[in-house]
Amino acid sequence: MNPFDPPLPAVRDAVGRALAEDLLPLGDLTAALLPPGVTATARFVARQDGVVAGARCVGEVLLQLDPTLLLDWHAPDGTLVAAGEVLGVVEGSLASILTAERTALNFLCHLSGVATLTRRFVDAAGERATIWDTRKTLPGLRALEKAAVRAGGGRNHRGSLSEMVLVKDNHLLGLDITEAVGRAREMWPARTVEVECDRRDQVEEAVAAGATMVLLDNMSPAEVAGCVALVAGRIPVEVSGGVTLANVGAYAAAGADLISTSTITQSAPALDIGLDIVDG
Amino acid sequence: MNPFDPPLPAVRDAVGRALAEDLLPLGDLTAALLPPGVTATARFVARQDGVVAGARCVGEVLLQLDPTLLLDWHAPDGTLVAAGEVLGVVEGSLASILTAERTALNFLCHLSGVATLTRRFVDAAGERATIWDTRKTLPGLRALEKAAVRAGGGRNHRGSLSEMVLVKDNHLLGLDITEAVGRAREMWPARTVEVECDRRDQVEEAVAAGATMVLLDNMSPAEVAGCVALVAGRIPVEVSGGVTLANVGAYAAAGADLISTSTITQSAPALDIGLDIVDG
Amino acid sequence: MNPFDPPLPAVRDAVGRALAEDLLPLGDLTAALLPPGVTATARFVARQDGVVAGARCVGEVLLQLDPTLLLDWHAPDGTLVAAGEVLGVVEGSLASILTAERTALNFLCHLSGVATLTRRFVDAAGERATIWDTRKTLPGLRALEKAAVRAGGGRNHRGSLSEMVLVKDNHLLGLDITEAVGRAREMWPARTVEVECDRRDQVEEAVAAGATMVLLDNMSPAEVAGCVALVAGRIPVEVSGGVTLANVGAYAAAGADLISTSTITQSAPALDIGLDIVDG
Amino acid sequence: MNPFDPPLPAVRDAVGRALAEDLLPLGDLTAALLPPGVTATARFVARQDGVVAGARCVGEVLLQLDPTLLLDWHAPDGTLVAAGEVLGVVEGSLASILTAERTALNFLCHLSGVATLTRRFVDAAGERATIWDTRKTLPGLRALEKAAVRAGGGRNHRGSLSEMVLVKDNHLLGLDITEAVGRAREMWPARTVEVECDRRDQVEEAVAAGATMVLLDNMSPAEVAGCVALVAGRIPVEVSGGVTLANVGAYAAAGADLISTSTITQSAPALDIGLDIVDG
Amino acid sequence: MNPFDPPLPAVRDAVGRALAEDLLPLGDLTAALLPPGVTATARFVARQDGVVAGARCVGEVLLQLDPTLLLDWHAPDGTLVAAGEVLGVVEGSLASILTAERTALNFLCHLSGVATLTRRFVDAAGERATIWDTRKTLPGLRALEKAAVRAGGGRNHRGSLSEMVLVKDNHLLGLDITEAVGRAREMWPARTVEVECDRRDQVEEAVAAGATMVLLDNMSPAEVAGCVALVAGRIPVEVSGGVTLANVGAYAAAGADLISTSTITQSAPALDIGLDIVDG
Amino acid sequence: MNPFDPPLPAVRDAVGRALAEDLLPLGDLTAALLPPGVTATARFVARQDGVVAGARCVGEVLLQLDPTLLLDWHAPDGTLVAAGEVLGVVEGSLASILTAERTALNFLCHLSGVATLTRRFVDAAGERATIWDTRKTLPGLRALEKAAVRAGGGRNHRGSLSEMVLVKDNHLLGLDITEAVGRAREMWPARTVEVECDRRDQVEEAVAAGATMVLLDNMSPAEVAGCVALVAGRIPVEVSGGVTLANVGAYAAAGADLISTSTITQSAPALDIGLDIVDG
Question: What pLDDT sits at residue B272?
């Protein structure tokens, strides 16, 4: 098991839906025109530099569509590839390959796009800070996108509302930070309890209340540095809000432990990967 | 029925999966900390200019999560909004609103992102050419993304492999254009039969064979203009490959009837929309 | 609850799939052309005499597609209707009504077809014998078709392999009738244990072994009469195989208690029912 | 890939539901009586002449029920078989074979019934006209039935509401033919736009408006011939309504390009196919 | 096929849901820490004496999680095992084994718990009476639990409301015993029609009306004996209500044919079975 | 929102499956015998003292089965009830109430059984220690059972493998404690990292490595006290293995912060709750 791989049940389910979406009710009208028995060899080829993610999805698309197709995959999730590099080779029925092509590439290009943009943030942040994702993922694709973030060298913030406590400003309409952290530690023992802070005084209150992390939201690098000094290593500090490739290094330099960004899941352009028939 | 709305069965299914993804198994740990009975009013507010898409998904998220929430939505799909504008107002349990927030926004921001980028392409193309989407959609979200394209003023190319015949270069490994078109017209009567052409001579062959459309792939505007002259209005001409906001106007000026781009679905950044609690 | 109605979970599930099948991914291209706000009143009208079945499905189609549609249904399942009779009236968005029309009618016409043909067999058999269905139902529609059989005055043989024991000739390759009945009574206590008999001597063996029913397969009415005399009322006698509207009366006269036929589910022509817009 | 085969995702899904329908919750009570280890060879045998459809479903039923069963299938979808002919042979556990029998045959007999009746219409129409199906399919079985129509030599009209534009009389309550065709061409570029015509003047209006097909509904062969002359080959002409084996030749002779009938999907009697144990 | 095995579609579905429940969205955080390529051999070992049930579920968990795992299972459902006995051995990726462990054991321990407690009731009842289960099963697990009851030597009462008629006291608010039995025999021919009786006079009425079984509810063994004498072997007698390991022998001695208890499905403690890594 | 309530998507899904399980394919044979139009009022009544859980499931069963039923529920999840107390009252069709009865009670009795047994452990542990559940839940019911644990005053350990890191003995075949904790903190930042310790020296290693919790497995209360002294409040200490109502107090007295037991989910007897028709 590659820790960058998404859980197989999530892969099977997403692929099943994607194939149904593209094939029902009549199947592939165009592939049906091909004479029977024509076989081919095809290569998945990167057309841009990037980080691969989605290999398990490609394999599952081929398996669900035509179990006689043979796939030899060279680039496990997390592999850095250059434009022109061959990621994998599939052999078998030409019709099946052409029918599978788009669905397989839709997974591969999107997830590799996520991994690639994540890697750019990771590189820009440097060794000091860790890039974290968010819950701002595309509906139905969370497990796959979070795995792609890992493939790109990022780490996963909570997978769902069910995993950690994260007290945001709007929660504070109903109770204050000290109460919130206290209740959280009582109701959900041993869990991460993070508090979103917009101001320096909130940081101190959160730490005092027993929060296990603080999230500094929409602060400048200078403000972050101030809060980091205040926290003084007692708990990890996350920064979020307005993080870009341009400023992520500054936030890392300011001492943030974790820098989270929704851009890598919500706004990652697809990585350009194609399928070339090499032997018809 | 708003023709920009996605089919309700697609909405229900996608929303159900998205909520399960975010809530199972323990529910929202943080909202559970709120004292019972706290209610609030919250506004969906655009933080950027753009085109709205995804209203049906927002309503469905609220309905599936807590049927007692009341939503008053002002901006049906296709509405052009400015930063700061209120798209809709929800009232009810603060805990329910905060639990629903991210899932609702994940749909709304992504789909509005698609609509907004589509609208930019539509505006750049001008009145002469129509912007078309592709099958390069995010797995499991095709129906929603294609509706968002319509909301942005674009039009939908085929919804799936099952809808039209589109003979691409790789299909021609198994048969030639004339054969392909002939078989297509015989096997799938009365359907659109489009042929992807990389060269001028293929265009002529496709028209002669009876194709109902040609797709000019990866040609320059000048090459497109040549092919448009060759076709001379006999059938519509689609252009694809390397279309950008910068060159889409040139392709339109070259006479293409339809210009398709995967960018609008596969690489659209999310539109920034937030939820503001206005009355806790 | 009308005992002719199928269980609601089966209805919801079948309708959900049918709507998805007809609407994804782009929705109803044609209804989308209608100007917004046009409403209509439409009538479901029988174009042939027959027995209605499928009312719950019609209601569910409308509900799932557009909850604002209003349905006033006059003809609960089991109602005998004449050509020209109005079964129900729907009011609301013209676009929604036209989108729903075919899916609703596909259920209604098929299930009413089953009910109507069942009724013809019931009438031909007369009061003496009961018409029974079989497991030869269309895949995915068993609950609905078996309810339609009830609506037509027939009765339901076992709903699935999980319900009764029915020892057929092929089972006897592995064990004899006496053994089979003995094991059945031991393994599945208190259940119906029926034995298919092709010959008179098997009937006697089955009764002696403790079968609670015999199935006379592919016998003539005269042979049936002989077996009925042999059984002499000790257990019910079912007849199956080659039953037609022409000979069902003869089988009933021969003394069969139950006459089963796959024709009513597997080969029932649709009942012609249409939707008339009465007020556009 | 056989173009007569339905898409595999549709097969898997329909088979899974059909098996659940027949086996839950207790499994096959009767097969459970057989002594363990009994194996058999069984043949699927046509009991009537006809056209085979549904082979993929048979294979999938066996695979999902008991992956150790071996199937050797001789008659791919579209094969014309005579009564007595062996379609395929299955070997393995007798209990598994008997449990699978009815579900496999329910698919095979229904779909072959569709293919067989389609073939009769195709033969009756002759070479001149093409037989088309409709959306009047049994709920949940559209993909399978449309593939069976292809196996019988027919062709598929639109797979769903999402595929083509077909303006019917009821749509004209909201807009006229010219408007409808104009909007259709604008909203759904490059798609088939068909207009249902009850009268000769509508045909002319539809052609003038730019419809790509006309559907002549409920006209006599003579009226059809008149409209065909009017259209004069400019666009294809479909005929529907009241088409029977008796009159389909007349409609073909009248010059219709496509003749559509719901009878082949909605009212096709099952083809009689049985399973014979040949070696217990 | 082992008649103690649950139907495979029920197994697949339950296992798929259980794995999703334990793995989504991020997979097994801890197994991801293991170095790649570490393999192991592990044994499923009984830690208590008991009866095994759930083998098919174990196999399916491993297959769905990692098809490269090899399972050698020694103890088919229904096997009596002693503490310390090895039930099966799995080999392959250590990470996969550890990820699968809990889900596999959750099925195995619960279902073996059901089988084991059933066996205790069966032994306590002795040969004279049969232990029957009820519909008081855990939601979503009925098919699996009913199979586990069989594995423990018990037998299955009706699988669902759809299988037999069982007239309970509350039904008699709407009609009397004679009417109920009469309608049941008319509406659901050839089915078991059981009547719950709280009093001796109801027993006589039920038998006279043609019930095929009576259920004596909450009677003492002495009262049961009286009713058994009254019935005098005409139909089987079931006893339910307050049955315990302590009194089940007395009920059996009182002449009950079938003794049903919800304890075996609703309140069976898990059988302690562990997974031991024997070779890391 | 009651924090003891399970997430609504989990409720809907589980209820839908449970109803299908009990009703398909023919519906409730017995309820179908009732004359139409009979209504009733019925009370859910506790027959034992205990803690209620599952109210949302009861409401959902009624809603999915017959939306016209009216439920007035008095005892939200977490309520302590005494034998004889009325939990809720339902009014409407007698047939619908009787059809719903068993499915509703199956949820309510099982989940209340979990809550009740949890409460007994909570009371036995006293104020000092918190009772925690485990992942040893019944397949498919995790979200509901974990909510029932909360209703009983317990707290939830991790919801799935995806939520926390818990390094067990078997993981240490592939890496040592220090490595495991180090990788965990690197790969899954800010998450709980717990280490299972069988020996005192492991506890010290885990704390030193940076674990955020230790789990003392299968130690005696005296051993636990020793380890608690060693940890000296640096991180929380969990105890598991062989915890019973008899010894849970001793473990609490030994200073464990959290005491986890699988008994409360895996071996909780159903709480006896019945449905009494009070007005037929």
Answer: 98
